[in-house]
Amino acid sequence: MPATVVIGAQWGDEGKGRVADWLAAQSDVVARYAGGDNAGHTVYVGEQVFKLHLIPSGILRDQAVCLLGNGTVINPVNMVKEMEGLRAAGVDVSPGRLLISTRAHIIAPAHIALDAAGEKARGADKIGTTLRGIGPAYTDKTNRSGLRAGQMADPEAFADALYKHTGAANERLVRDGNDPLDPQKSAEEYIDAAYKLKPYLADTSAYLNARLREGAVILCEGAQGTMLDIDHGDYPFVTSSSPTVGGALTGLGIGARWVDRVVGVAKAFSTRVGSGPFPTEVEGELAARLRGTGENFWDEFGTTTGRPRRCGWLDMLILKYARDVNGFTELVLTKLDVLSGLPEITIGVGYEIDGTILDGIPVTTADQMRVKPVYETLPGWDEPLGSARTWNDLPKAACAYIDRIAELLEIPVNTVSVGPERDQLVQR
Ligand code: GDP
Ligand code: IMO
Ligand code: MG
User: Which of 9, 48, 158, 365 is the most buried (most CB within 10 A)?
Assistant: First the structure.
C-alpha cells in the first residue's frame, strides 16, 4: 500500500477528516495536497473535537509525519494559530513532525480582501466562498505573481515582498471601490508567523519520494470535494484548486505509479454550502431533519464558516461522476446513522431535462441547474446505528441501502461510518 488518496465525492464535508483519521492509523505520512484553510475537517477523539483547517488530520496519530504539499495555499497567521491550538491540546506539532512545502503558495492579506471584494462585486451571483482568500491566492499562483512559502526562509525579505504585494493589490481594491489595506500592517502581521514557520519548510516532494522508495505508507488527504474541483466541478461555483486525484499528484510531486488505492468519501445524503446547482436538494422539514439543529457538532453547519449547509438526498449521478473522475477503488459511506428514523430513503438515480432522461450529469452548469432528479425509494429503518460495530449489527434496510449504492456504483462499499467517534466504523 504505497499511497492512498482520500477524496470527497460530493461538495465537501463528506467526513474526509474522519476517514483520513481512520486510515492515518496505518500511515507513515499524511499529506494535504490542495486547498487551504477553507477546509474544515472534524475529528472526534475521546471527548475532544478537533477542527482542522490546514493541518492534516494525521497529526492526531502520533506515528504519522504530516505535511502540506506544494498544491496547498497557506495563510501563515492562521497556520500558526492552528498549531498553537493543537499544541495546547497536547498534540506534537514540532518541526520534523510537520513539514511545509517551500513551493506551497501564501495567502496574503490582500488575497482575503480581494476575495471579499470579488464576492461583493458578484452580488446575487456570488459563489459563497469561505472568504479565506483562496481564489485570489491561486489566481496569483497561475498568474506567476504569487508569494511562495519558501520565501519565509528569509522573514525580513518575505515581509518586504508582502509590503509590495499589498501595495500592488491596493490599486485594484481602490479601483473597484474598496478600502485599501495598510501595507506596513500586512508585513508586520506576517513576519512573526514567518519566523515561527521557517523551521518547518522543506522540499516535501523530495521527502515523499524518499519515503516512498523506502516503503513508507503515504496517505494523501483531500480537501473540498469533486464537485468543487476547478476543472471537474460546477464551474464557477467551485473552489480554485484540484481536490480530485490528479491534484494529489501535482499537489505533492509524486508519480502515479505509487497510488494504488483511491478512497471516495460520500455522505449517506448530500450537502452543499455556498451557491451552485444541487439537483437533489430538499427544503423545509426534511432539510431541517437532515441538517440537525446545530446542537451536535456533526450537524450540518459549516466547520469553517458556521453557515447552515444545504441538504438533500444522495445523488448517484454525482457519485458515478466522482468515481470516474477519480478512479475510486472503493467508497466509504459516512453519517448513515443520521438516516435512522426516516420512513423512506430516497436516492437520485437519474436526471430529466426537457423530457429527456439523462444517465450522467450534463456538461454545462446551466443545464445542471435545470435538471430534475429521477428518484428511487427504499424502505427506511428505525434503529439507531451508533452502536453498530459489525455488518450484522446493521438493520436489513440499511444494508439494502448500502448494497443498492454499491450496485449502482459498481465499486465496493465495504466501510460505513455510523458516528463521529473513532470506533463508530463498520466494515463488511
Ligand atoms: P470533511 O470536511 O469532509 O472532513 O467533513 P466535516 O468535518 O466538515 O463534516 C463532517 C461532520 O460529520 C463532522 O462533524 C464529523 O465529525 C461528522 N461525522 C463524520 N462521520 C460521521 C458519521 O458517521 N456520523 C455522524 N453522526 N457524524 C459524522
Ligand atoms: P472541506 O475540506 C465545503 C466551497 C465554498 C464555496 C466554494 C468556493 O471541509 O470539505 P473557496 O473559499 O474555496 O473559494 O469557496 O467552495 N468550499 C467548501 N465547501 N467543504 C469545504 O472544505 C469547502 N471548501 C470550499 O463554500 O461554495
Ligand atoms: Mg469540512
Answer: 9
- The CATH fold assigned to 105-197 is Adenylosuccinate Synthetase, subunit A; domain 2 (1.10.300)
> Ligand 2 center to residue 239 CA distance, Å?
6
CATH class, domain 266-427, is alpha beta
- The C-alpha cell at 176 is 473597484
Q: How many CB atoms are closer than 10 A to CB 142?
A: 11
Mean pLDDT in residue range 1-9: 94
Q: Any catalytic annotation for residue 13?
A: yes
Residue extents of the structural domains in the chain: 3-101+201-263, 105-197, 266-427
Tell me, using a 6 A CB cutoff, whether residue 137 lines ligand 2.
Answer: no
Pocket test for ligand 2, best of 21, 32, 38, 78 (most atoms within 8 A of CB): 38
Mean pLDDT (the chain, rounded): 97
Confidence label for 302 from pLDDT (cuts 50, 70 and 90): confident
Right CATH for 3-101+201-263 from 3.40.440.10, 3.30.43.10, 3.20.20.100, 3.40.50.720: 3.40.440.10
CB of residue 136 inside a 6 A radius of ligand 1: no
* CB distance 363 to 408 below 8 Å: no
pLDDT digits (tens, 9 = 90+) for 236-254: 999 999 999 999 999 999 9
State yes or no: is 111 an active-site residue: no
Rounded to whole angstroms, the Cα distance separating 428 from 332 reads 11
Cβ of 37 closer than 6 Å to ligand 1, yes or no, is no
In Å, the largest CA–CA distance within the chain is: 64
